[in-house]
Write a structure and sequence with these properties.
Elements: H1 3-13, E1 17-21, H2 23-32, H3 38-50, E2 54-61, E3 64-65, E4 68-69, H4 73-88, E5 93-95, H5 99-106, E6 111-118, H6 126-134, E7 137-141, H7 164-176, E8 179-181, H8 187-196, E9 202-203, H9 220-228, E10 232-235, H10 251-265, E11 270-272, H11 281-290, H12 310-319, H13 324-343
The structure holds zinc ion.
């Protein structure tokens, strides 16, 4: 069987999980413009084309998209509400809240969504976190690149570890069996968080710093620790996290990261966290201009710039010798295993 047919067959017979997507933010923007079924009408066809059967959706965080300040608690509540409405409207859409939902997701029956937060600035106290959990939140990234009340992001000079509040947040994640996602943390906060979170950790959209020196990528020491703790690392498809020269961000170069991480801790620690932004690239471009950043900063891996083109990357992985079983794990099995470990601990 040629590689393309092999990958298509894998994509149709196994759960495929995108472990980090900002689509809920675009869904909210579309709903505000009157397109109140965008998740199904506009996004689902692209998910199907890419083979994706489950997507983790960011419903808020410590950053802004155009005029949306995603740390605003009221805005986050509204994004959650809009997202749940659009999931509820369709029988083949499901929210992932517990192990039974993961069983359904593993069988590829319908399309599954899990809610995540990318920075906890919208959380003033633990009660607010519990409210979001009650509404379906299941994964939490503590910071974006900056410092907040919980911890220091990777963009802070002389960063430290978690604050007392950050430790209380981690305690609550353990108590409610939520996924802790260590992406975006400064190195000291990364290690501090792992000292307190005792369940398998996720790093949803980061690559290997040994191959691309960006501060958002993981050192070999960090990768080894994730392996020891039975965690999972989602490969990021953004060019700046793939190669120091982002114009060289080919699928094969991204596959180098997968091979490197697999050599350190095994292929069962890999997942797909593409971090796509094509659906609101207009807003991102404004942000680049505002911050005097290069206009081509947000180029994605060549040939797989949207979720519909996910198979291009999977083919690059297949060419590097991963077996069908290993590829099935990378596509979604590994992420589902981690979510199950956390939910049922
Ligand atoms: Zn991010």
């Amino acid at each position: 069987m040629d590689i393309s047919a092999r990958v298509q067959s894998l994509l149709r017979s196994h759960p495929v999980v995108d472990v980090h997507s900002d689509y809920a933010i675009e869904l909210y923007r579309a709903a505000e413009e009157g397109r109140d079924d965008a998740l199904h009408a506009e996004h689902l066809p692209r998910l199907r084309e890419g083979g994706v059967s489950m997507e983790v959706l960011t419903v808020g965080g410590d950053f802004d998209i155009d005029v949306l300040k995603l740390w605003d608690e009221r805005l986050v509540r509204n994004i959650v509400d809009r997202t749940l409405q659009q999931i509820d409207r369709h029988e083949d859409f499901h929210l992932v809240r517990d192990a039974a939902d993961l069983d359904r997701a593993a069988s590829r029956a319908g399309t599954h969504f899990m809610l995540a937060l990318e920075g906890i600035r919208c959380i003033e106290d633990i009660a607010a976190l519990r409210m979001l959990h009650a509404r379906g939140l299941r994964a939490v990234i503590l910071t974006h690149n900056e410092r907040n009340g919980a911890a220091d992001g990777c963009g802070e000079p002389n960063p430290g570890g978690l604050s007392n509040f950050g430790r209380a947040v981690v305690e609550e994640l353990l108590a409610t069996r939520m996924v802790l996602d260590l992406v975006h943390l400064s190195d000291p906060s990364f290690f501090d968080a792992l000292d307190h979170y005792t369940l398998p950790p996720m790093v949803s959209h980061s690559n290997a710093r040994a191959l691309c020196a960006h501060r958002r990528n993981l050192t070999d020491e960090q990768i080894r620790l994730i392996g020891e703790r039975h965690g999972v690392i989602g490969l990021n498809f953004l060019g700046m996290f793939i190669d120091d020269d982002r114009t060289r961000a080919t699928p094969d170069r991204l596959a180098d990261h997968a091979v490197h991480i697999a050599e350190l801790i095994g292929p069962q620690a890999l997942a797909l966290g593409p971090d796509y932004a094509d659906y609101y690239i207009d807003a991102m471009k404004k942000w680049l201009t505002r911050d005097n950043l290069p206009s081509d900063l947000l180029t994605f891996v060549h040939g797989a710039e949207t979720v519909a083109q996910l198979p291009v990357v999977v083919e690059a992985l297949a060419r590097r010798g991963f077996t069908d079983e290993e590829l099935a794990g990378i596509l979604g099995g590994n992420a589902l295993r981690l979510y199950r470990d956390v939910f049922t601990a």
